[in-house]
Amino acid sequence: MDVIEISKVLSNKTRVNILKWLKNPEVNFPPHQDIDHFDDGVCVGYIQDKTGLSQSTVSTYLNSMQNADLVIPTRHGKWTYYKRNEAVIQTYIEALKNEL
């Protein structure tokens, strides 16, 4: 876990919002059509719709979040679903408490 890299990712309001929305996906996103749960996260299309940004921008954001280990991707056929990596988020918060 790299505090600096995660802080860079979190310096963007939309990426922070994505993490907030993924904290309670049942509240923030419509039900999935193909699966009836959010166990594997939220489909990129739903995240894109909520942000109002282009698919390429959202993919770039999710990729940077994945590289910082803030989200975990899961493939279902041609679709990728993302959920928060709670362990890394908690480690980051603890590191901030201890180091600052």
Q: Can you describe what's shown?
A:
With 100 residues, the chain is of the alpha+beta class. The protein has one domain: Orthogonal Bundle (Arc Repressor Mutant, subunit A), CATH 1.10.10.10. It is 57% helix and 14% strand. It has a 3-stranded antiparallel beta sheet. Strand 2 and strand 3 form a beta hairpin. The mean pLDDT is 91.
User: What is the arithmetic mean of pLDDT?
Assistant: 91
Q: Please identify the structural class as seen in this structure.
A: alpha+beta
Shape: globular
Largest sheet: 3 strands, antiparallel
Order of helices and strands: HHHEHHEEH
DSSP summary: helix tally = 6
CATH superfamily: Winged helix-like DNA-binding domain superfamily/Winged helix DNA-binding domain
Number of strands: 3
Helix content: 55-70%
Count structural domains: 1
Amino-to-carboxy terminus distance: 16 Å
* CATH class wording: Mainly Alpha
- State the CATH architecture: Orthogonal Bundle
Q: For the CA atoms, what is the radius of gyration?
A: 14 Å
- The CATH topology name reads Arc Repressor Mutant, subunit A
Residue windows where pLDDT falls under 50 for at least 5 positions: none
User: Which strand-content bin applies to the residues?
Assistant: 5-15%
Order of neighbouring strands in the sheet with most strands: 1-3-2
Keywords: DNA-binding, Transcription, Transcription regulation
Organism: Flagellimonas alvinocaridis
InterPro entries: ArsR-like_HTH, HTH_ArsR_DNA-bd_dom, HTH_MetalResp_TranReg, WH-like_DNA-bd_sf, WH_DNA-bd_sf
Protein name: ArsR family transcriptional regulator
